[in-house]
């Protein structure tokens, strides 16, 4: 059982019932839950003013908890990046704290990676994933549990049949062929990084954008018109970021708005065009994003990535690989 | 009377009545209007596929027209930036062609500035500004006319009383005091650049983002939730772009969406915070953007900028300054 610290670095918590429900569920799971004094603060759209949220991050870092979990995302981290004590974030991570969250939290994760090389976890948020009216997703809970107990050693997922066929065509075109068995090794000892596409792109050109070469970049987004998604991907492409990776992995792109004007322009055509243009594979169907089922991803850690038929397997390097991976086949 | 070339580098033209009306109005004004063969092309949401739009830009450059005017913006330029022949764009500009447009057109303008130093004009688009059902705005037409005939030598505008009071407080705090009369000189021989904020930010980190030091950066946007506007401004700020300018000039930020969750977070608070944080003045009320009344702005040209009471005056350096400026006081 773990000590979990709940804090609010981004948007103000409006759904207090879900907040309480989430805490209650974590307690029922046997965890000791500590709530930051400003977790329910509210100034404009933010969970407290900038200084308050910076202080909340510092308190989370100093809490000695096993896990610090954001209450929710929203918007609020990019504007306080210059004030965050990333050394303290990294020190806490080194001492064993797992920083967990997603969405706007991407800014804290990539800032920490850029400034200190610290590993943080992309994973659930309290309100959206633990406290929602419906029972939390089993896989999401299992993955979080693995992170909490330090058992997380990788993740795997299954692509759709057509997705897999397209990917294998692309892999072949790119000269990535199966070794030994039939597994195609796409990346080894590669830095895993990424997060919410809009937030990743919003850091480009700033000191909080990690300079990762030969990495595995994962991306997700929610509620954007498709043309914006393409514009953001194009920005990362024109900046040379995508080309410098070993693979681009796409999670959920949900609530994407298309209009009559799009006339067939869609996430599908955007992804197909991207895959065609890039000299690196674009791997679909990562269970991560603004979706109920989300795995936990160690942002900043070294990973290996391989594809076998319709299965994708991502393993963290920094773990005892003698263990059985089967139960992580989310 | 001028030779005006109409082409479509971005979104497909859907409102063909407005397209025809715009052309008719330009003809009534006495201009010779040449329409690009692909001006009404349509592939997905675009005015023809990527190669077609790249070719349309090349045809505009080769047309020998006095003015090349976009039919409309939308989305489509960032994804073809690597294929645009910017040398041809610059050569045409040098030979006297005025490239005119706004919104998505910002990508072509900043790409041209970054790659060649060419001056292009932020100004109206055919459909939104000339062909709309309502009669075109007089000032917009006058400014375009000045550009067409090479008479444009500057622009001026009047701030609101409170805006002016705040600006003068900021100018004083920044040590910018009136000389001689009561006019505060904010910038001299400074590169004027900018455009649509989302597009400006979408070029950050790419080879199409101009590296302008000590410039005058103007920005406008439409139809974005306010938090996104702030995130984009924050990106430019964290990248050091805003700090490196002599002034940031704000045009129209229209159809900005706020929600109940914003609780007082608004363009007003965003601009106030920005002005407070920046070591350079933030000058409001530029008549430019997705608004009926828009002046024409020579992106890439050298300008001087001064403030006198509620009036802001921006003059292009490269012009005979003996002329009377009064009739440009839009």
TrEMBL record, chains A, B:
Keyword Protease attributed: yes
Entry keyword set: Carboxypeptidase, Hydrolase, Protease, Serine protease
Name recorded for this polypeptide: LD-carboxypeptidase
Keyword Hydrolase recorded: yes
Gene Ontology MF term list: carboxypeptidase activity; serine-type peptidase activity
Residues of the LD-carboxypeptidase N-terminal domain: 4-123
GO BP terms: proteolysis
The LD-carboxypeptidase C-terminal domain, residue ranges: 191-305
Family: Belongs to the peptidase S66 family.
Classification via Pfam families: Peptidase_S66, Peptidase_S66C
Organism field: Comamonas serinivorans
Coiled coil region boundaries: none
Active site positions: 103 (nucleophile), 220 (charge relay system), 290 (charge relay system)
């Amino acid at each position: 059982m773990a000590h979990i610290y709940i804090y609010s670095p981004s948007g103000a918590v409006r759904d207090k019932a879900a907040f309480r429900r989430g805490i209650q569920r974590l307690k029922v799971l046997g965890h000791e839950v500590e709530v930051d004094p400003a977790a329910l603060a509210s100034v404009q759209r933010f969970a407290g003013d900038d200084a308050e949220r910076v202080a909340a991050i510092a308190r989370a870092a100093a809490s000695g908890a096993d896990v610090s979990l954001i209450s929710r995302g929203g918007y609020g981290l990019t504007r306080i990046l210059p004030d965050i004590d990333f050394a303290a974030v990294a020190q806490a991570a080194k001492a064993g704290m797992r920083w967990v969250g997603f969405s706007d939290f991407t800014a804290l994760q990539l800032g920490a990676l850029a400034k200190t090389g610290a590993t943080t976890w992309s994973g659930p948020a309290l309100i959206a994933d633990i406290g929602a009216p419906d029972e939390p997703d089993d896989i999401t809970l299992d993955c979080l549990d693995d992170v909490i107990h330090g058992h997380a050693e990788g993740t795997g997922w299954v692509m759709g049949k057509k997705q897999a066929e397209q990917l294998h065509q692309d892999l072949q075109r790119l000269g990535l062929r199966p070794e030994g068995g039939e597994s195609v090794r796409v990346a080894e000892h590669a830095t895993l990084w990424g997060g919410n596409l809009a937030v990743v792109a919003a850091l480009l050109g700033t000191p909080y954008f990690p300079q990762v070469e030969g990495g595995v970049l994962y991306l997700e987004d929610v509620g954007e018109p498709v043309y914006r998604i393409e514009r953001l991907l194009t920005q990362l492409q024109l900046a040379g970021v995508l080309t410098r990776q070993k693979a681009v992995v796409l999670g959920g792109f949900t609530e994407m708005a298309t209009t009559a004007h799009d006339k067939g322009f869609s996430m599908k055509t955007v992804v197909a065009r991207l895959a065609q243009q890039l000299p690196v594979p674009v791997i679909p169907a990562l269970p991560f994003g603004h979706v109920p089922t989300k795995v936990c991803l160690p942002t900043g850690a070294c990973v290996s990535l391989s594809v076998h038929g319709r299965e994708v397997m991502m393993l963290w390097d920094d773990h005892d690989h003698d263990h059985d991976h089967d139960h992580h086949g989310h």
